[in-house]
Amino acid sequence: MPHFWNNTNAVAVNVDELVPRFWSSQNVLSKEISRNREKPYGVKALQRGGGKNMKLIIDFDSLPNHIQQKLGDPRKVEHNLLYFYKTDSVAVDFYTNFTRPDGSYLSPDEQQRYITNASVLISILKLREKYQIERLKLGMSLKGLNTFLCEESNSFNPILLKRFDIQHNLPTHPTRFKEALNDFETPFNEWPYNFAAIIKDIEGKRKQNARIVDDVTEAILNGLFANISHKPTATEIYRAYEAFLSGYAQVYNEDTGEIYDPKGFPKLSESTVRLYLSSWENKAATYKQRSGDRQKYMGQFKPYHQLERPKFAGSLISIDDRNPPFKDLDGNRVWFYNGIDLASECFTVFVYGKTKEGIITEFYRQMVRNYTEWGLNLPDGLEAESALNSSFTDTFLQEGYMFQNIRIEANNARGKRIERYFGALRYEVEKQREGWLARPHAKSESNQMGPKAVPQIPYDQIVEGAIQDIYTWNNSPHSQDSSVTRWEFFLQNQHPELKPTNWKAILPFLGYHQKSSCNTGYIKLQGKARAIAQNGQICLGEPLINVMKAIEGKDVDVYWLDDNAGNVMKALAFYEGRFICEVQEMPKYNRAIIERTAADDEAREIQSSYVSTVESFIRHQEKALMKVNIFQQPKPEPKNGFFIPGMKHNRFQPQTTDAEIIDTDDAEKMAMVPSVSWQNSFFK
Fold first, then answer.
1. Domain residue ranges of the chain, discontinuous segments joined by +
2. Can you give the pTM of this predicted structure?
3. Contact 59/10 with Cβ under 8 angstroms?
4. DSSP state of 485
5. What kind of architecture, by CATH, is found in domain 316-492?
6. Separation of first and last alpha carbons in the chain
7. What are the residues facing 3 on neighbouring strands?
8. Cα–Cα distance for residue pair 85/159, rounded to 1 Å
9. Do the beta carbons of residue 583 and residue 524 sit within 8 Å?
10. Which of 231, 454, 529, 605 would give a disulfide with 522, using CB separation of 3.0 to 4.6 Å?
11. Are 124 and 151 in contact (CB under 8 A)?
12. Which among 542, 550, 537, 527 has a CA at the least distance from the CA of 583?
């Protein structure tokens, strides 16, 4: 606003009040001032600009008349409210950030109108305060105050239009104006005024009331569009709705059984039906139910995360299956399962087969083999699809077992970064080989099918070529650092905080299983007697004895994994489900003394210590034996206390037997009696 200059009658204008409203830039304005410096007319400066504290100040009286009228001369106040009016910054904050319940912001026209209305009301409140103070000082009545303020508000509109090219739309009748002013001046929450009181349709219902298609009608259109099995077009839905209104078809709710009455529904045009069915909020639901291709649906409707590439190798590995674009002589495509380190872009794991049967278990075994033989720790994170991996989420694919962080998603190609590298591998490397198959609907003409028939090639040739392509890819320059290959980047930039492989957590699920037993300190595996070990070292001393106490002479479960040469890489022994020890091959030495090397001497020392540990323990136990014996006391005779009163022991025994012993005298007497057999007595 123009203001008095240094307590004089001169009026000053700041540059920002003139630029860019009347001059396009300050340079243009300064040039005009320079041209008019020696002339008695033209725009003049009250203060020349220069430095931090010297700003250019323009003489109001030197400005053209039309600009003076727009700015207003403070010496000639046209209206009482000009003393107080200015755009209120708090009102600007409120209305630019205000949202209705549906989340929509005010339109630019609404914002400007409400900011102007609020600024005018604030200036009227200041005018009322000044008016009241002056009237009370003079002992005058305040009667008619609201009418006076309403008239000031109404008469201020032409001034606003002339000065600022805006107008307010506050009530013009004193009664309604008073109500609006009273509602506005009440503080609301943390705001000094109730800015929301002057917003019309604050709930946003006016737009809803004007809708021809209400929520029920829209729900019916969407339901028909989504549930009819043959995927109807918008035209078919319009015809079905017309038949419903005409009484030729019934529309019902399968969940509630309600049959809708066509009398309660409006007549719609085909364009209206098409408009509602094609709106995003409706398509997002109906297309999801109608779609047979989840990938295309997610590509059209589902937002995706925007992520940065990992900086360290080993931070995250992305895995997925693929079919290299070649067909074998039977017309089939080979199955590969690959894993790529996202920081280095290096394919670190791959397995293959004619089917997917068992390929995923072998993939994780191969990952352990590769990283162990490279002397590296397993990756920290894994991203994978759920089709083949879901069966392992309760075993070694729990977080903290094989990987520290795991993300497994169902049928989400964008969720696995490896899909992008599969595309690059297909078009940058594999495309050069014979038998390469183009995608049926490739967008680029160079990737579309050519005029010649694509030959089929032997299975072994496909596998050999696919493996060679991975070698070519890994030995190619890294996309972010062309001075090194992807493989060199992988080896040189391993994350320093990767955790060592937790063999005890993964080997019972990934390793091969074999029943065995521990005898004389050795556990047999693959026909070899192997030693007891812990942490990669053969046990000696007390640790060896403690293990033998637990499993010597007992059956154990051995889980083991081989390396790429077929040798046992790691083996663990478990007893009754509890980890006991590692199983490690005992180093051997040459029987002939003359042929022994330093390694043989070291192996002999280990074996001697192993045997000595067991023998020393046995001797210690033997010495600890106490000379204890036992003296057998005679057992007490059993008491025969059982009897039956009046009954003799031999009551039921025969009086004589063949074995009866007869005295000599009795024998002589009996010899004098003739012998008669019982047969003779019976028959005679």
1. 3-76, 89-207, 211-301, 316-492, 513-618
2. 0.60
3. yes
4. B
5. 2-Layer Sandwich (3.30)
6. 169
7. 12
8. 11
9. no
10. 529
11. no
12. 537
In the block, which residue shows the tokens 């001032």?
A: 33
C-alpha closest to that of 294 among 443, 413, 418: 413
Instruction: Determine the Cα–Cα distance for residues 561 and 532; give it in Å rounded to an integer.
Output: 17
**Closest of 455, 454, 437, 457 to residue 329, by C-alpha:** 457
- Identify any residues that bridge with 259 across adjacent strands, giving them in sequence order: 252
pLDDT band at 84 (very low <50, low <70, confident <90, very high): confident
Res 671: pLDDT? 46
Strand order in the sheet with 335-341: 346-353, 335-341, 316-322, 381-385, 405-409
72 or 426, greater pLDDT: 426
Phi, psi values for residue 51, rounded to 5°: 80, -175
- Which 3 state secondary structure label does DSSP give 528? strand
Q: Of 514, 516, 510, 520, whose CA–CA distance to 547 is shortest?
A: 520
| CB burial of residue 626 (10 Å; 0-12, 13-18, 19+) | exposed
Nearest alpha-carbon partner for 153 in 127, 134, 187, 133? 127
289: Cα separation from own chain's centroid: 24
Whether residue 103 is predicted with pLDDT greater than 80 in this model: the reply is no
C-alpha span between 510 and 104 (Å, rounded): 55
Confidence of residue 29 (pLDDT cuts 50, 70, 90): confident
The closest alpha carbon to 316, from 379, 375, 374, 364, belongs to 379
Q: Tokens 């729900």 sit at which residue?
A: 219
CA distance 415 to 383: 8
The CA radius of gyration of the chain, in Å to the nearest whole number, is 51
Per-residue pLDDT, 621: 82
Q: Nearest to residue 530, comparing CAs of 471, 607, 482, 583? A: 583
